[in-house]
Amino acid sequence: YPEPLARALLERHLDACLDLEDLERAVQRGDLLFFHYALDMALDHFLQAVFALNREYFPSRKRTEEYLARFEYKPIDCVVRLREVLGLGGETATMGESFRQWLGLVCDLLLMVELERA
User: Fold this and answer.
1) Using an 8 Å Cβ cutoff, are 60 and 99 in contact?
2) CA 46 to CA 30: how far, in whole Å?
3) What SS3 state is found at 16?
4) 3-state SS of 32-51?
5) Which of 1, 11, 108, 111 has its CA 20 to 30 A from that of 17?
6) 44: alpha, beta or left, given left = phi > 0 and alpha = psi -120 to 50?
7) Which residues contact 117 (CB under 8 A, 6 or more apart)?
8) CB atoms < 10 A from the CB of 11, how many?
9) Which residue from 31, 116, 45, 105 is spatially nearest to 75, judged by alpha carbons?
């Protein structure tokens, strides 16, 4: 896994993880379908970043949990937390909590990347 590719993918997908405008707007409006769209896009960027951090090519979302289980670099309880984000994101009433938990995952990933760079 070439280092320049890992850096480029990590930067691109971390930047995209920080673009929270659509998720915030969906929560403010209570727009569940738009929230799912924005969360799907955000999840893809998050996974791409985690895979790049672990120097692993992202094959697809198939067997994602299997890959995450063996990765050294990932947020604590990553799979459990991702499942919670998805579960809470299924109802308008809990969409805000889903978003808050999503922010926690993204922040933990950013911290991990910063520690890795140090």
Assistant:
1) no
2) 23
3) helix
4) HHHHHHHHHHHHHHHHHHHH
5) 1
6) alpha
7) none
8) 13
9) 105
DSSP per residue, 21-90: HHHHHHHHHT-HHHHHHHHHHHHHHHHHHHHHHTT-----STTHHHHHHH-SSS-TTHHHHHHHHHHHTT
Spell out the per-residue pLDDT of the chain, length 118, in tens. Answer: 788 999 999 999 999 999 999 999 999 999 999 999 999 999 999 999 999 999 999 888 889 999 999 999 999 999 999 999 999 999 999 999 999 999 999 999 999 898 877 6
pTM of the model: 0.93
